[in-house]
Predict the 3D structure of the following.
Amino acid sequence: MALLEVQGLRAGYGPVAVLHGLDFEIPEHDIVVLLGANGAGKTTTLRALSGMLPASGAARIDGQSILGLSADRVCARGIAHVPQGRGTFNELTVIENLEAGAYLRRDTAAVKADIDRWCEVFPVLGQRRTQAAGQLSGGEQQMLAVARALMSEPRLLLLDEPSLGLAPLVTRGLFERLAEINASAGTTMFIVEQNANLALDIAKYAYVLEAGLIALQGPAADLASDDDVRKAYLGF
Amino acid sequence: MLLLLAFVNGSFFKPAFFLQLVTNGLSNGAIYAAMALTVVIIYKTTGHLNFAQGEMATFAAFVVYVLTAEQHFNIWIALPVVVVLSMAAGAGLERFLIRPVESRSNLAVVIVTLGLFLLLNALTAVIWGTQPKTGLRPFPGGIHDQITVLKGPPQFAIGYGAIGTWAVLIGVVIAISVLLNKTKLGLGYRAVAANRESAQLVGIPVSRMLMLGWALSTGIGSIGGVLVSQSSGTLDFNLMGSVLIYGFAAAALGGFDSIRGAIVGGLIVGLAEALLPNLFTFVGSELSLAMALVIILAVLLVRPQGLFGTARVLRV
């Protein structure tokens, strides 16, 4: 059974409908990528899943419905969302950001161990423990946002355009880290990306969103190698 | 500029006189700092200004008056009780009055707090009348309750009330900083203040943090109300009128989102209010507020975010 099952997901902003009924599923321990042009509804999909937007349809994690829950309850169900533009707590230090990521956890000792763990995985964070997050570079903030999300020990990690505004080399490093974390910790990931090349590289399965509907889906490797698909949907 | 020198008051520079003015300024400033703190604590998480802050404090001071003057409780028992009740009332106001209108617009919240201001002001007058009552006295406040440092004349003395006010402010600041910086609850509050949406995404119950802000603010406000009553020696339904204006001025000067700024801003406003009318012969005490505001305006022209406020820089 898939970790996340979504059926007929509809969402939008006020009277403007953006998603017109999406069906997809994310198997446990996999990396799934959601591609699509600007305005296709990628960010809306993630925001609907994490309780930031009202949505209709069905979305179940482990068979339990998450639609209609407030964002902090969704987080408690094991979904961590790294928002577009990173959303770090800029006035807080790196360590405090990570502690805030573990806000719902009660196991203080394990939280400390996890902070050290992610500071090892992302050495730049280890070097800047007591610096305010606002002083970090864009790439460092993105690492921090990912590490902060991982601090909640999520079953499912939602990443919204992690490559946005990052230098190509930094983006590559970040995606390599994500693949490693997926391989070592088995964290399931659902990544929204415009940078289709890199995302398809590490993903197992991919969906392509067009005007609020799933236009195409398939194993990531197939999509990446299909010339027609590449020209029509991925722009390269 | 030279012309200004002609209006300088010579006796301003006598040490005893000057020290006395500084002491008075710092003791009023501590109260302004407390009121600025109440403004900032709510603003940081919600982005709202609560204009009813002063009237809420006045109401709390009257409850303390009832408990002490009429029910004969010791003020040091009455005050903590009222602080706790105020905190509950503050949290309740956020939950049932502010939150329902908050999603509509920020202006709606402004109107609601202004309405609360008028309502509480009238309610206080209706319940306790418009005649001033004897001021509350958490600290000895008689004419001889002071430590005379320089016999003079001019004399330099520090009243027990001023010392008490400083002690209370220091206590409040320590309590707030421990709560915000050393506890998980405080981490949640600061995370909401830094980025409300991200705070939701990491599982922080944001609405509870907004209630916490209102509770803390209202609790500190009630302490402020009692201190104002002590220093002014009276208690009436317009107790906080000008004090809250100074408090807002202090918050603007220090930066609306900075707790440190509220403290420093409050002390500066208090000092300016005490020193300026005595430095220049042409500034009467009725002009001291205007002079203080001129200084604040000058600072804000150079630093619009206030002395310690965060400048909003957006990286696109």
